[in-house]
Specification:
It is a single chain. This protein is of the alpha+beta class and 638 residues long. It contains 23 helices and 22 strands. It has a seven-stranded mixed beta sheet with strand order 10-22-21-20-11-18-19, with helices on both faces. Helix 2 packs across helix 4, helix 7 packs antiparallel against helix 9 and helix 9 packs parallel to helix 23. Belongs to the cation transport ATPase (P-type) (TC 3.A.3) family. Type IB subfamily. This is Heavy metal translocating P-type ATPase.
């Protein structure tokens, strides 16, 4: 970086941007001073623009040259810029100094864009680390002691109180509770956990206190594995990036070797004088510089990014705009992505003389005293109805809840629990309930009565499918996406039910984060460019591994938002098809621009070799082609 590390986070993320901005300002005022004939001021401002804007490129170019024994475009551009400035001073054609500064400014802007991308991995890891507490309560000789997570040992017994995060993976020794594991497994409903079952670090404890035995080192916990997977996937260079690096080095070598030959051989081969030879060599470096090629790509991608932003699609960098247009397979997370991620009352069926409103009112009377998500969904559904809270409420974890409402006993729970209070379950409801359960819905039976309680109805609870999900899948298939799959930590029944509703044929269920990562890798072996759409912490490794990671902007976790390459700001799934269309248009425009840029470069190179153009004409042709392809790229703004 241009500025010291001690200036903190601002320096690390914004130094390149500040350098590019200062270079641009100095260039503008230097040009203005030169135009007015204030040579002293111009010769003060323009060298400063060269130094500030070109420092980072010069440092990287020289480092590559001396340490790796390689030439790259950074060094080539610096040589071309200095050559233009030297030639301008030599021939008193001072506008050439401006041309050299413009070349440096273009590279400074490119470096600033690259600098932002380099910070994503660090921010993602910091967000992941914040998901687990720093300390845990360890039981030692009957007393609780706060110790750092890093000091936990296998065999330690820890206490987790209601509403707290689980600090590390472990086995429950005593207690019963519901744990919200959506961040880790993607399950839409909190999972009931009791003695002997495993709990994961980073999951949220519900209403019960738990005593947990640490059964693996803290650094081996599931959340720590997620962190390592994200870090590894984000630091692996994709094949396209490796190709670009090789192309830059090869291009620079060819131009430098050709420039040296052009600066030395013509006097011996064709009898040129040395002034003409040097002049042609420097002209060659200017016209052969890849500014037009760079302008053929970045303005197009930036225009596409701006277009996407207007439509609620946030592309974090231009490379992902290109990649999204090449996507051949897409993997969707279920909970919070294809569904809303919040359980709601799906359907209510009553029996005998009762209505569905009676069923909701009776159920809400006891569930109003519950903290369980299912109870909250029932109370929310009955919010506008006239119901009275129950007394003497008693909840039996994992089974149901009972209480007294308006002098009648109310029983709400699963079938086994309700059968303890009623003679039999209505036959007309059994088939309906069985069908609901096969679709992955949670079913609550509602009964009331004192001596002879009777079932009055059933309530189906489900995570709602997003309204635009099915239309999005249909649109993606029409766009030619070859494979669309769903990845989820939920059970098979729920997964297949949602997949059927939205039109997805291939489902992977009951997956942990590393399982999702493996599926993405297998898809990449078959389809090369694969997109992953998700919202949770459990999706972070897959989002990082995918060729293009797409996160839900509203429901997405901080880690998913940081890890993903594209963010759907309003959680509108249909914008994925828009992003693919933008990506494909950007590819077409980039190809057109590359052809134009290479055509101009070849024309200028031939003209320079034949002696039919001078340096000002070469610069005009070079800058003209740059402007032309830039304006072409701006078409994506429409």
């Amino acid at each position: 970086m241009l500025y010291p590390q001690r200036f903190g986070q601002f320096t690390r993320e914004h130094a390149d941007t500040v350098a590019a901005l200062l270079c641009g300002l100095l260039l503008f005022f230097g040009w203005f001073a030169l135009h007015l004939g204030w040579l002293g001021l111009a010769f003060l401002l323009l060298p400063a623009a060269y130094v500030i804007g070109g420092y980072e490129s010069a440092r990287e170019g020289l480092t590559t040259l001396f340490k790796e024994k390689e030439l790259d475009v950074d060094l080539l551009m610096i040589v071309a810029a200095i050559g233009a400035a030297s030639l301008g001073l030599w021939r008193r054609e001072y506008h050439l100094i401006i041309d050299g500064a413009i070349l440096i400014l273009i590279f400074a802007i490119s470096g600033a864009l690259e600098g932002y991308a380099m910070q994503r991995t660090e921010r993602s890891i910091r967000s992941l680390m914040s998901l687990t507490p720093d300390t845990a309560r360890v039981l030692h000789q009957g007393r609780e002691e706060e110790v750092a997570i890093s000091q936990l040992k296998v065999g330690d017994e820890i206490v987790v109180k209601p509403g707290e995060l689980i600090p590390t993976d472990g086995i429950i020794l005593s207690g019963y509770s519901t744990l919200n594991q959506a961040a880790i497994t993607g399950e839409s409903l909190p999972v009931e956990k009791t003695v002997g079952e495993e709990v994961f670090a980073g999951t949220l404890n519900g209403y019960g206190a738990l005593q947990i035995k640490v059964h693996k080192p803290a650094q081996s916990s599931l959340i720590q594995r997620v962190i390592r997977l994200v870090e590894q996937a984000q630091t692996e260079a994709p094949p396209s990036q490796e190709f670009i690096d090789r192309f830059e080095k090869g291009y620079a070598k060819v131009i430098v070797v050709a420039g040296i030959l052009l600066a030395t051989l013509p006097p011996f081969l064709w009898g040129w004088d040395w002034e003409t030879t040097i002049y042609r060599a420097l002209t060659f470096l200017v016209v052969a510089s890849p500014c037009a090629l760079m302008a053929a790509i970045m303005p197009t991608l930036l225009s596409g990014i701006a277009n996407g932003a207007r439509q609620g699609i946030l592309f974090k960098n231009g490379a992902q705009l290109e990649k999204i247009g090449k996507v051949r397979a897409i993997a969707f997370d279920k909970t919070g992505t294809l569904t809303t991620g919040q359980v709601q009352v799906f359907q209510v069926i009553s029996v005998s003389k009762y209505t569905k409103y009676d069923v909701l009112k009776v159920a809400a009377s006891v569930e109003s005293s519950s903290e369980h998500p299912i109870g909250k969904a029932i109370v929310q559904a009955a919010g506008d109805l006239d119901w009275v809270g129950a007394i003497q409420v008693q909840a039996i974890p994992g089974q149901g809840i009972v209480g007294i409402a308006q002098e009648e006993q109310v029983i709400v729970g699963n079938a086994v629990f309700v059968q303890q209070y009623v003679t039999n379950l209505p036959e007309e409801l059994r088939e309906i309930v069985q069908s609901w359960e096969q679709e992955g819905k949670t079913v609550v039976w509602v009964a009331q009565g004192n001596r002879e309680a009777e079932v009055i109805g059933v309530i189906a609870i489900a995570d709602q499918v997003r309204s635009q999900a099915a239309a999005t899948i249909t649109r993606l298939k029409k766009l030619g996406v070859e494979q669309i799959v769903m990845l989820t930590g939920d059970n098979q029944e729920t997964a297949h039910s949602v997949a059927k509703a939205v039109g997805i044929d291939r489902v992977y269920a009951q997956l942990l984060p590393e399982d999702k990562l493996d599926v993405i890798r297998r898809l990449q072996q078959q389809y090369q460019t694969v997109a992953m759409v998700g919202d949770g912490i459990n999706d972070a490794p897959a989002l990082a591994q995918a060729s293009v990671g797409i996160a839900m902007g509203v429901s997405g976790s901080d880690v998913a938002l940081e890890t993903a390459d594209i963010v759907l700001m309003a959680d509108r799934l249909e914008k994925i098809a828009v992003a693919i269309h933008l990506g494909r248009r950007s590819q077409l425009i980039v190809k057109q621009n590359v052809v134009v840029a290479l055509g101009f470069i070849m024309l200028l190179l031939v003209g320079n070799f034949l002696g039919n153009i001078n340096l000002p004409i070469g610069v005009i042709g070079h800058e003209g082609s740059t402007v032309l392809v830039t304006l072409s790229g701006l078409r994506l703004l429409r």
